[in-house]
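Batch job 17 of 40 flagged for manual review because the log was empty.
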Amino acid sequence: MRAIFFACLCLIIVGCSTPDRSKYVQQLDSLSTAVENTAQKYEALQLDQVQSRVDSVNAHLEFIQSNYQGDMKKDMSLELSEYRSIRKLIPELGNKREEISNNLTISRNQITDLKKAINENATHDAVGNEMNDVYYKKIIAQEIKANKDLVSKMEFIISRTDSVYNRYNRHYTQVKYWVDSLRSSRVRIQP
């Protein structure tokens, strides 16, 4: 009789205990690690310097376009074309930086809040949705998709940054010489 009572008590306790959702926390930890590994590399970039290089390219090209007269030699045209391509390596860098920064903050907050809700066995979210296994699977899938896109955007900028520096360093001296030559030819000598 005691054995039956004990077995019934165990079933009641198991039935009333909170479900094991540690697998969701593990998924979120893995997701967080993947995002943070890429974010660490991204945040180590000197994006102000990259933007400065792009701004310099734009200023040089504008100056040459406004002040160069006559037919351009082929070698100069090719060099300027390569220099101009720097602008296309990371189009709209300023907008991308802001978007990534905002999405990274949102991602970090979402993952932290979701892990907290799981660990505290929350039953409903802020708008009243029941937080059950179906809910967690759906939300985690959304987070994985959003963070995959975020990681992809950060990796794109990381991969293109070296190219910006390499092309800039390869062409800057020659283009700066042409800009300086155009500036000096515009200066009139006063008697």
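Reviewer: the log was empty due to a logging misconfiguration, but the result itself is present. Residues 53 and 169 are 10 Å apart (CA to CA). Unflagging and moving on to job 18.
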